């Protein structure tokens, strides 16, 4: 505790003001120009999101960064790396432990695909690139006790271009203006998530005996809606001298024993979809043979272990009956940082405080401690926040969750924690600048070589770019 307080005191003495106070000291004329410049640079950088109707819009960028210390960066890196390593164990547990299989529901066709591939790759290295979404307050005295993971994303991770891009924009525009007010404000960017991805793909290629690194970024090009990052990831790889292509799954083919996209031989595939989505191609008559060959050859990142990004993954991590599968360090991290999560069903289990409970009656009695989430949905879809609905609505939602078909993955109940609220400079229609409150969350991507954090902010409690949220630069104070 003393070490954290000394660090906080040193920052206060050196800066004399909070980050917001420094920004508000920028002369109003210059500040208004900064708003325009950040908006223009964001659009130029392609920080765009496509709505379901195909319309493109710029993702809002918050005008000041959130700041973390080197000590915090090191802690988040260590903790997130351990959770990612735990997730990499789930494929084996799914196949070997029927209790785990019951908590990570797949359709019969998905299950067959998973088991067919696992027979071939069970002893092969698994590489999972995962973003762990978390609720944290960097400025809190108990920051290392009070941040919590609420879900994981381990296929087609969003933000790997957005995060470094928004940091670069603020470093060029807003940070220099703030340093005129506070010369001691020295900030640096975190590890570039694009580089972390490149290093993970390089490591995986070496582990499976590939000498080249020709990479296909596989994405359904016909889909409308979502981030538009893959072309920028391809651009980054090419800038590093790596032959890379943005391809539709239907473009992947075999030439003898080699994967191909057009005339380019492919060594690794970085995927944007789960197996269930690929099976929809099969329903349309598409030959999935080349894609399955990539899985069987362990040429896909995230590997098969990345398929286990159900929200109920956290039930496996927070249930004492599975603790033997994880290290003592991982178990301590789960207890401190992973939110208690259970699939809504009739069952006896342990509650958030470790007590044995009859799950359904307990869920009905504890509305204000819980949130409901569709197990396999994404983008903030279908979330019900217990403290913000009435008892009748909560009861109906629990009945709907109980009746959910197995193919949907069901619904999970998760311990509710208040989403952090932070003030950011905002500009009204007349150009006046003031502070406005936003809900904030972070997505942390950790690899053995580094850590990067995607910051997001929204006026809504469900913070997601797909729910019209914005981006926040996360910078490290030097």
What order do the helices and strands come in, and which of them pair?
Blueprint: H1 2-15, H2 19-24, H3 28-44, E1 48-50, E2 56-58, E3 66-68, H4 70-87, H5 90-96, H6 98-103, H7 108-121, E4 131-135, E5 148-153, H8 162-172, H9 174-181, E6 187-189, H10 193-207, E7 215-218, E8 226-227, H11 230-239, E9 244-247, E10 252-255, E11 258-261, E12 264-266, E13 268-271, H12 275-283, H13 289-296, E14 300-301, H14 313-318, H15 328-337, E15 341-343, E16 348-350, E17 356-358, H16 359-365, E18 370-374, E19 384-385, H17 391-403, E20 411-415, E21 420-427, E22 433-447, E23 450-458, E24 470-472, E25 474-477
Helix pairs in contact: 4-15
Task: Give the fraction of residues assigned to helices.
Answer: 25-40%
Supply the number of helical segments.
17
Report low-confidence residues grouped into runs of 5 or more: 1-16
Name the structural class: alpha+beta
Overall mean pLDDT? 91
Distance between the termini: 21 Å
What global shape is seen?
globular
Q: What is the number of strand segments?
A: 25
Largest sheet at a glance?
A: 6 strands, antiparallel
| Radius of gyration of CA atoms, rounded to a whole number | 23 Å
What fraction of residues sit in β-strands?
15-25%
Explained architecture:
This protein is α+β, with helices and mostly antiparallel strands and 478 residues long. Among the domains are: 2-76 and 132-189 and 419-477, no CATH class; 340-415, no CATH class. Helix content is 37%, strand content 23%. The protein is built from 17 helices and 25 strands. The strands form seven sheets. Strands 4, 5, 21, 22, 23 and 24 form a six-stranded antiparallel sheet that branches. The protein has a four-stranded parallel sheet with strand order 9-7-13-14, with helices on one face. A four-stranded antiparallel sheet has the order 15-20-18-19. The chain is globular. Residues 1-16 have low confidence and may be disordered.
């Amino acid at each position: 505790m003393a070490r954290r307080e000394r660090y906080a005191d040193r920052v206060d003495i050196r800066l004399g003001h909070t980050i917001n106070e420094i920004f508000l000291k920028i002369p109003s004329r210059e500040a208004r120009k900064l708003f325009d410049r950040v908006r223009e640079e964001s659009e130029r950088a392609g920080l765009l999101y496509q709505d379901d109707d195909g319309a493109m819009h710029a993702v809002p960028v918050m005008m000041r960064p959130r700041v973390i210390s080197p000590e915090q960066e090191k802690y988040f890196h260590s903790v997130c790396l351990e959770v990612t390593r735990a997730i990499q164990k789930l494929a084996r547990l799914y196949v070997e432990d029927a209790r785990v299989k019951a908590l990570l529901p797949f359709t019969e066709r998905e299950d067959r695909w998973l088991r067919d591939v696992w027979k071939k790759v069970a002893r092969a290295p698994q590489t999972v690139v995962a973003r762990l979404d978390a609720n944290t307050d960097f400025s809190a005295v108990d920051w290392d006790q009070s941040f919590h993971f609420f879900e994981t994303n381990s296929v087609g991770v969003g933000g790997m271009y957005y995060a470094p891009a928004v940091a670069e924009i603020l470093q060029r525009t807003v940070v220099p203006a703030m340093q005129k007010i506070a010369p001691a404000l020295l900030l640096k960017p975190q590890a570039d998530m694009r580089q972390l991805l490149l290093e993970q793909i390089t490591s995986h290629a070496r582990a499976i005996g590939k000498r080249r690194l020709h990479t296909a970024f596989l994405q359904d090009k016909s889909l409308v809606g979502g981030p538009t990052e893959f072309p920028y990831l391809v651009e980054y790889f090419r800038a590093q001298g790596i032959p890379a292509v943005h391809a539709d799954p239907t473009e992947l083919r075999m030439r003898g024993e080699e994967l191909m996209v057009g005339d380019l031989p492919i060594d690794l595939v970085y995927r944007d979809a789960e197996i269930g989505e690929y099976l929809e191609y099969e329903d349309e008559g598409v030959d999935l043979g080349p894609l399955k060959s990539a899985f069987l050859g362990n040429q896909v990142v995230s590997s098969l272990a990345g398929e286990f990004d159900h929200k109920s993954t956290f039930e496996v991590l927070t249930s004492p009956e599975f603790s033997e599968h994880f290290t003592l360090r991982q178990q301590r991290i789960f207890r401190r940082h992973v939110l208690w999560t259970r699939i809504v069903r009739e069952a006896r289990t342990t509650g958030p405080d470790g007590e044995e409970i009859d799950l359904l009656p307990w869920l009905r009695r504890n509305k204000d401690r819980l949130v409901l989430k569709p197990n396999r949905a994404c983008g903030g879809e279908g979330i019900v926040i217990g403290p913000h609905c009435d008892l009748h609505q909560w009861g109906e939602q629990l009945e709907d969750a109980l009746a959910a078909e197995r193919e949907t993955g069901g619904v999970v109940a998760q311990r509710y924690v208040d989403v952090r609220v932070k003030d950011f400079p905002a500009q009204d229609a007349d150009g006046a600048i003031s502070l406005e409150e936003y809900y904030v969350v972070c997505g942390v991507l950790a690899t053995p070589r580094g850590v990067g954090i995607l910051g997001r902010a929204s006026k809504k409690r469900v913070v997601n770019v797909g729910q019209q949220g914005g981006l926040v630069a996360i910078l490290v104070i030097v």
